[in-house]
Amino acid sequence: MIKDDIEKKTIVGNWKMHTTSSGARDLAQGIVDGLVDESIDEEGASIILCPPFPYLALVGEILKDTHIALGAQNLYPEKEGAFTGEVSPTMLLDLGCKYVILGHSERRHKLGEPDAFINEKVKVALAAGLDVILCVGETLEQRKANQVEALLDRQLGLGLANVPSDALRRVSIAYEPVWAIGSATHHATPQQAEDAHSVLRTRFGQIFGEDAANEVSIQYGGSVVPDDAAALLSRPGIDGALLGGASLVVNEFLAVVRVAIAETRSVMQSA
Fold first, then answer.
1. Distance (Å, rounded) from C-alpha 177 to C-alpha 163?
2. Rounded-to-integer distance, Cα 7 and Cα 262, Å
3. How many CA atoms lie within 13 A of 143 on its CB side?
4. Catalytic residue among 104, 106, 138, 263, which?
């Protein structure tokens, strides 16, 4: 997913393992209605909602005829087969998904997914026609050990290994410092986020070339809330936000969208 000419920010709502069918309906409808009721220019930001698998069809119906895209939180890298409990890219496309989140820290650290398996998912998703949001990020121990650059280099390089250059326009990166996700005591500063994004963009350029590095969208995903959204989204190289908890509250999610649109307008006016 490349950045467009006006540097439009991307806001992704990752609902994780939350909501019920009625809760998912109310949340999606509340976001859609909120954009209309408050006359929020939803075209001023790329907005993606990623509900749990059981509610993809339900949420997809609500998002029809809006500028909000539907995304999934994961997939299994096969078209079909005897893989009990898994969901294929074909199924996601059939439900109207345009995006899929891969390599999220919770799948890496809680479910043990290695870089090679994540890379397999990335290639299969792109080949099927899905846009990929690849998550990368370090733990607190890795940061304290000054391993941030090496870790990001490894996750990005292995995660995108053998991805064809003509598919890069359908890849975005989400930097999520594991130590900041859902934490009340550890928060990345805007400078730390900017520095990590710079590392990722530099490494992306080394792998795929400077033009690709300038075009790739890199979102920040470390427990973004409305109060710190402006400080983060105004930083160079931070192209959007991957929201967890804030995406489960209509007013909080809309507040971050407003910030993203304001930043987009600021860039347009200064261009």
1. 24
2. 12
3. 16
4. 104
67 catalytic residue (yes or no):
no
Alpha carbon distance 208, 168 (integer Å)? 9
From 106, 113, 138, 176, the catalytic residue: 176
Distance (Å) of CA 123 to CA 118, 127, 128, 160: 9, 6, 9, 8
Name the DSSP letter for residue 216: B
Domain range summary for the chain, segments of one domain joined by +: 9-248
List average pLDDT for each run of 10 residues in the chain, which is 271 residues long.
67 98 98 80 85 98 96 97 98 98 96 98 98 95 92 96 95 93 72 96 95 96 90 95 96 95 78 61
Amino acid at 92: L
Q: ∠73-47-31 over CA atoms, to 5°?
A: 95
DSSP 6: T
Catalytic site residue 80?
no
Question: Is the pTM above the cut of 0.70?
Answer: yes
Q: What's the CATH number for 9-248?
A: 3.20.20.70
